[in-house]
Write a structure and sequence with these properties.
Structural class: alpha/beta
Length: 250
């Protein structure tokens, strides 16, 4: 069957998206295309709508206008292609389960809730824990892990879904340097595998180091594209306001 619209080949296409909360727009007329095999940051001030954009792509929040397409189709038809790492603060870490079981939860999308995970699923989960440096904590209760370790477990849970698109809401927030290095290694490996990774990010200094594309967001999309073109002092002032002082080291 011939494809007449290139949105079918674009992992994430956001078109004219407006999201309102109690009639106040949180996102306004946002357009965004995230090409395949890219590692893209969503950057902007507090209240800019960064997490709202991720949640609307996932269908967790309803759009007032516009639409989101995942490879040319609504998210609900493509959810098996998408993995999500939420903000760590939004998770109930007192839930009585260990790290391996949390990662195994990522296999249920592939298995369905009736079929029990088998040996191969357990091996995939252990491999994912190993890839984030957490294999020795497999039997540890998640409530007993540090914040950085918990974040790595959630990243491993996303990895076992073997998705094509990974959406992450501030995965580096409040983590230690070891965890940050482990996470960025995984993200860059996903990119090398041709996966598409979209990350809400707040540390401006590391954007050029970690990402190849960026969306500057402040309710509206200020600019998006390759970091080398978009991540400029002028665009950052437009996103954050004139009060912001940025130092760019050449």
């Amino acid at each position: 069957m011939a494809v007449h619209n290139n949105t079918h080949t674009i992992p994430i296409a956001v078109e004219d998206l407006t999201v309102a909360y109690r009639e106040a727009p949180v996102l306004w007329d946002v357009d965004l295309e995230v090409p395949a095999g890219t590692l893209m940051a969503i950057v902007g001030p507090n209240g800019a709508g960064k997490s709202t954009l991720i949640k609307t792509i996932l269908g967790l929040m309803e759009a007032s206008a516009g639409r989101v397409l995942i490879y040319g189709k609504p998210y609900k038809e493509q959810r098996h292609l998408v993995a999500y790492v939420p903000q760590r603060g939004s998770v109930d870490w007192d839930f009585p389960t260990n790290a391996l079981d949390v990662v195994m939860m990522g296999r249920y999308a592939a298995l369905g809730w009736v079929k029990r995970p088998g040996k191969s699923d357990r091996e995939l989960a252990m491999n994912a824990l190993e890839s984030v440096g957490m294999e020795s904590f497999a039997q540890r209760q998640i409530s007993q892990l540090s914040g950085g370790q918990q974040q790595r477990v959630f990243l491993a849970r996303a990895l076992v879904q073997n998705a094509q698109i990974y959406l992450m809401d501030e995965p580096f927030q409040g983590v230690d340097a070891t965890t940050e290095k482990a996470i960025i290694r995984v993200l860059q490996a996903l990119k090398e595998q041709g996966k598409t990774v979209l990350v809400v990010h707040h540390d401006l200094e590391t954007v050029p180091q970690y990402f190849d594309r960026v969306l500057l967001l402040n309710v509206r999309a200020i600019a998006s594209g390759p970091v080398a073109e978009i991540f400029t002092p002028e665009n950052l002032r437009r996103a954050y306001g004139g009060k912001m002082e940025m130092v760019f080291e050449k």
